[in-house]
Write a structure and sequence with these properties.
single chain, 409 residues, mainly alpha, Growth Hormone, Chain: A, 81% helix, membrane, transmembrane transporter activity, MFS_trans_sf
């Protein structure tokens, strides 16, 4: 059955910076809260799944890493799909994938099957609920694009805050399998509600986008791609291993899972504060600052010990969350500023494929190092080096890159 594209809205009320745009921001906020609340709750599932299947840190972490790889890689597909068909059918696909993937995961008897059921189900859901909605919100706004995107992606932080602690409580009460079923039903229902109210933005104006083959040859694209790759190698290490590290340091399991939620709270604050700062000092400069903050945060985790674990881990999660929030809030805006609004979904998705590679490699590699060394320090140090490299890769990025690239084509 062919999918009919949504027709672009052309009524006077449906112009940029208007009420329909803010309604779509609300739908984007909820969709991102749902999909990332589920995805980033995996730290709470890590220990019970590892214990039931008798697998080590490296093997168990592949569940999350493959999931993140899928959502980043498929973001290029869902981004192009939303450019063509609008947000509604894309969100509906995400709802179906989330429900099917989590229910199937609740029934697996071998961990490698969970790689496929959880990875594809949740991965497709995040790909449908994130990149497409970022592109749609970006298309609805001009003057207030930075703050609108900051509000929309703040849903990621809220979902992160609620997802991991809620998962820990439900797992304690019902077990990890039934918790997946609960998340499947509730998450799919919320995504269906988002699909009902999300609207396609007005047709973007401006020059036609560069062909993707020309885009990937630009210095700006290389800078964005390499920085995203290196930052993703670092970012997903704490999302997988921080709760286990905290429990080994004497923190209770629920409080340890809540540390991932603290990243979510800090990221909300970071998204909103950095979104406003970007309008004053420049989006690209603020984007670079976010990566510097991300790199510095790992120092607190590196020096955490059993006697200082909780306070230093709180510092780590807050600082990490601020830097991570700024990165996620500003990346679509920076892509639009450098390359233009036309075809934004496909371009953002293309950059995010770098995140998929980093997510696929980073956490499993860290898990192998943890298993080999019997501790976390080398993995934390490696993550900090990658985050620092991500900041350095962004230093050549400038606003005039797009114009220079177009002049050469």
């Amino acid at each position: 059955m062919a999918v009919t594209p949504e027709r672009p809205t052309t009524s006077p009320a449906s112009t940029v910076d208007s009420t329909p745009g803010w309604i779509t921001v609300g739908a984007a906020f909820v969709s991102m809260a749902v999909v990332f609340g589920v995805a980033y709750s995996f730290g709470a599932f890590f220990a019970p799944m590892s214990a039931e299947f008798g697998t080590g840190s490296g093997a168990t972490s592949i569940v999350f890493s493959f999931t993140a790889f899928c959502w980043f890689l498929l973001g290029s597909v869902s981004g192009r799909a939303v450019d063509r068909f609008g947000p509604r059918p894309v969100l509906l696909i995400g709802a179906v994938a989330l429900a099917a993937g989590l229910i199937a995961t609740s029934r697996v008897t071998q961990l490698w099957v969970g790689y496929l059921t959880y990875g594809l189900g949740v991965g497709i859901a995040v790909a449908c609920g994130y990149v497409p909605m970022v592109a749609v919100v970006g298309g609805w706004f001009d003057r207030r694009r930075a703050i609108a995107l900051a509000v929309a992606v703040a849903g990621i932080g809220v979902g992160t805050l609620a997802g991991a602690p809620l998962a820990a409580v439900l797992i304690d009460a019902y077990g990890w399998r039934r918790t997946n079923v609960i998340f499947a039903v509730a998450g799919a229902a919320l995504l269906l509600c988002c699909a009902l109210v999300a609207r396609r933005p007005p047709e973007a104006e401006g020059a036609a986008p560069l062909p993707l083959r020309a885009v990937v040859r630009t210095r700006a694209f290389r800078s964005l791609y390499v920085s995203t790759l290196l930052a993703s190698l670092a970012l997903f290490v704490p999302f997988v291993f921080l709760p286990a590290f905290a429990v080994e340091a004497g923190v209770s399991p629920v409080l340890a899972a809540t540390l991932v939620g603290v990243i979510g709270v800090a990221s909300v604050l970071g998204r909103l504060a950095i979104g406003g700062l970007a309008d004053r000092i420049g989006r690209i400069r603020t984007y670079q600052l976010s990566f510097a903050i991300l790199a510095v945060s790992f120092l607190a985790w590196l020096f955490a010990s059993p006697t200082t674990a909780l306070p230093l881990l709180l510092v780590f999660t807050i600082v990490l969350g601020i830097g991570y929030g700024g990165w996620i809030a500003l990346q679509p805006t920076v892509v639009a500023e450098v390359f233009g609004l036309r075809g934004l979904g496909g371009l953002v998705g293309l950059v995010y494929t770098a995140g998929g590679i980093g997510a696929l490699i980073g956490a499993p590699l860290a898990g192998l190092v943890i298993d080999a060394t019997g501790g976390y320090r080398w993995s934390i140090a490696g993550a900090m080096v990658c985050a620092t490299g991500a900041f350095l890769a962004l230093l050549p990025l400038g606003r005039g890159d797009f114009a220079r690239s177009r002049d050469r084509c």
